[in-house]
Amino acid sequence: MTARDAVSGFAALSHPVRLALFRTLCDQAPQRASAGELAHGFDIPPSTMTGHLQTLERAGLIKAERRSRFMLYSLNPEGTRRLVRYFVDECCHGRPELTGTDEEAAAAAALMEAS
Questions:
Q1: What is the pTM of this model?
Q2: Cα angle at 49 between 46 and 55, to 5 degrees?
Q3: Letter string b/e over residues 48-76, b meaning 16 or more CB atoms within 10 A of that residue's CB
Q4: Dmax of the chain from CA atoms?
Q5: Tens of pLDDT along 7-64?
Q6: How far is CA 114 from the centre of its chain?
Q7: Phi/psi at 6 (nearest 5 deg)?
Q8: Contact in structure between 102 and 110 (CB atoms under 8 Å)
Q9: Closest Cα to residue 34, out of 65, 61, 13?
Q10: Is 73 helix (H, G, I), strand (E, B) or coil?
């Protein structure tokens, strides 16, 4: 993943509605949902919902599949993994004290104190 791709992914997730949509699709993975189904709980017009979904799709975080006259949306696991890997590897340099569990962070801190 390039830095440009990562910026696109982070930008897509920077809006509260898109972040909520992404989380919903993560929770439902691997199931698909229509824009109408995803719109429940949001007080926004359908065209705005479609725009948010298209932004997430262009960033490679979700997939869209046409079924008759409906679009069905689902999580793109590979795109999501690539963005997370970029963040961990390129931004945090894989440092367990920044990216791991509390136990890994404690172990890393103990190693740093011991050296």
A1: 0.83
A2: 145
A3: ebeebbbbbbebbbbbbeeeeeebbbbbb
A4: 63
A5: 999 999 999 999 999 999 999 999 999 998 898 888 888 889 999 999 999 999 999 9
A6: 37
A7: -65, -45
A8: no
A9: 65
A10: strand
Report DSSP state, residue 67. Answer: E
Identify the band that residue 109 occupies on the pLDDT scale cut at 50, 70 and 90.
Answer: low
Q: How many Å from the N-terminal Cα to the C-terminal Cα in the chain?
A: 34
Place of tokens 């367990």: 96
d(CA 18, CA 88): 22
For the record, the structure tokens of 49 come out as 């919902």
Helix axes 16-28, 3-13, angle to 10 degrees: 100
Radius of gyration of the chain (CA): 18
Q: Tokens at residue 100, please?
A: 């791991």
CA distance 73 to 55: 12
CATH of domain 3-114: 1.10.10.10
Dihedral-angle region of residue 65 (phi above 0 means left; psi in -120 to 50 means alpha; beta otherwise):
beta
Extract the tokens encoding 62: 């979700």
